[in-house]
Amino acid sequence: MALAFKDLHWTKNIQVQQYLQPGTLEEALEMLANFEGKARVIAGGTDVVPQLRGRDIEVEALVDITRIPGMDGIIEDGENIVLGGLVTHAQVASSNLIRDKALLLKEGAGSVGSPQIRNVATVAGNLVSGQPAADTSIPLLALDATVTIAGKDGEREVPLTAFFLDKGKTVLDCTREILTRIQFRGLGGNEGGCYLRLAKRKALTLPMLVLAAVVNADKRKGIINRAAIAMGPVAPVPYRATNVEGFLKGAPISDETFISSANMGMQECTPRDSSLRGSCDYRQEMSKVFIQRGLKTAVSRIGS
User: Fold this and answer.
1) Which of 131, 174, 222, 268 stands the most exposed, by the fewest C-beta atoms within 10 Å?
2) Residue 251, SS3?
3) Could you tell me where the DSSP H helices lie in 25-112?
4) How far apart are CA 164 and CA 24, in angstroms?
5) Can you name the residues that pair with 129 across neighbouring β-strands?
6) What pTM value is reported for the model?
């Protein structure tokens, strides 16, 4: 179905010729292919519309995928949790399954924008935006999530650790491909997670620093089996502190371990000075605070 773009009330000053609404994934991919790189996918529109208004992108058509069935659910598949490509932040923030199996993702999704934004903005769109401190990218990175990308030649699965290329850039071609699902393993009884966000106010502001931690530990023996720490914006892409993770493997659960991890993680962080997000020195110091606090909180949530 095609609409005259000028007839949509919110399109003032946006230079787009066609607004297309496919009913199937195959139809959407065909539409993208027909425009040969001059069309963009739109779902929530919270990233695409501002980019169009600011002339950051120029396209001939928008392909609205919100009518495609089967992409708006949160399901449990064995040990895995699957988010459809149209799942919104509000859905994640209110999901009992996410609360029970991935609390850090619920915390991240609930931090995005305002209720109005969370009701329409999709988690997939947050990933595709490629921003180094996106509120759901960081916890999903700590959860070792994998995304499924559909194109004319079929589907491919990409670990989130290989998805981000540079600020605003991912392996997905948003003029020809669609992110259809996000999959990760829910946390087990010996695991805990935490999401922390530093910002000037609680809503509608860019974060100065975000951190997500997942810890697998034997609390009876007092040993950390493994840990995942994701942070942003401390690098051009959402960042995994792999050296800290290696140090934590087999380490005792103790204040000394957390302090050493925090000092090591601070040395890995290389945020740039920013008038909006704060200085490099400040955010490096806060990364030390966040790593220590995040690990302690994650451990405290094991078995709870």
Assistant:
1) 222
2) coil
3) 25-34, 48-53, 89-94, 96-101, 103-109
4) 27
5) none
6) 0.91
